[in-house]
Write a structure and sequence with these properties.
The protein is of the alpha+beta class. About 20% of the residues lie in helices and about 30% in strands. The chain has one domain.
Length: about 250
């Protein structure tokens, strides 16, 4: 069975259950607009749940998630980036909760990064440029979350790195480094608020965060979700003879 990582991004025309009902089932995961490929490196190891695995060739880019509201049975869809490289995950049942990260500085950096870049993919010209920007945002998300410290982010060194192989190099990789170098110039929009999906089934620490326009009283009436990311995912993996790929 294919295992997939959940991730973050922009969502249009989705129906999200209210916080009180707080249940969705994700049944479909695909790429939007598509995936770059590259080598994800985490020198302490643990990629995909294997303690000894320090690198893996993965797909990298924004995921499109589809499923149903468990209360109303209405269709839901999300674009999302994953945040965690340590677990492969599948679709399943999720609760909607408030968003937080243990490190407040990294949480703010992610908000600023994703707020600033939320419209970049849609504004890009052509599939390749959209794919490169999608992969760049995903790589920057991973670097912020998985690197030690809260400054001096680089895809070339430290605990978390992206190798120079595959279609992430050099274009998407360079774009990602530019985002990381300019984090201080980004701002988290005051017109946004955040929510998190946490997995109920399969049981794990899967999480997915969404950014929505402030002042909207209930998730059920959100017409546009700007971003999301999953703390349990990091990659989609096919069996044996097929290519492995990651999303956040």
């Amino acid at each position: 069975m294919i295992k997939r990582l959940l991730a973050a991004g922009a969502l249009a025309a989705a129906t999200i259950p209210t916080m009180a009902n707080a249940g969705v089932t994700i049944t479909g995961i695909s790429g939007n607009p598509g995936f770059a490929t590259g080598k994800v490196i985490y020198t302490p190891g643990g990629i995909g749940g294997s303690a000894s695995r320090t690198s893996q060739d993965l797909y990298i880019g924004r995921l499109h998630l589809t499923g149903v509201d468990n209360t109303t049975l209405a269709a839901v869809s999300f674009d999302s980036y994953c945040i965690d490289i340590f677990h492969y995950i599948q679709g399943g049942t999720f609760d909607i909760q408030a968003f937080s990260l243990p490190d407040a500085t990294k949480e703010n950096q992610l908000k600023r990064l994703l707020s600033a870049t939320s419209g970049y993919i849609g504004a890009a010209a052509g599939f390749e440029q959209k794919r490169d920007i999608s992969a760049a945002i995903q790589m920057a998300v991973w670097e912020i979350v998985n690197e030690s410290g809260t400054s001096g982010y680089s895809l070339d060194g430290g605990l978390f790195q992206i190798g120079t192989t595959g279609s992430v190099a050099p274009t998407a990789r360079g774009i990602a480094q530019g985002y990381l170098s300019n984090l201080d110039s980004f701002s988290a929009s005051g017109a946004q608020s955040y929510r998190m999906l946490t997995a109920v089934n399969p049981v794990s620490n899967q999480r997915q965060v969404f950014l929505a326009a402030a002042g909207v009283p209930e998730p059920s009436v959100w017409g546009l979700l700007i971003l999301g990311f999953g703390t349990i995912g990091g990659a989609m993996r096919r069996r044996r003879t097929t290519t492995k790929f990651a999303m956040a």
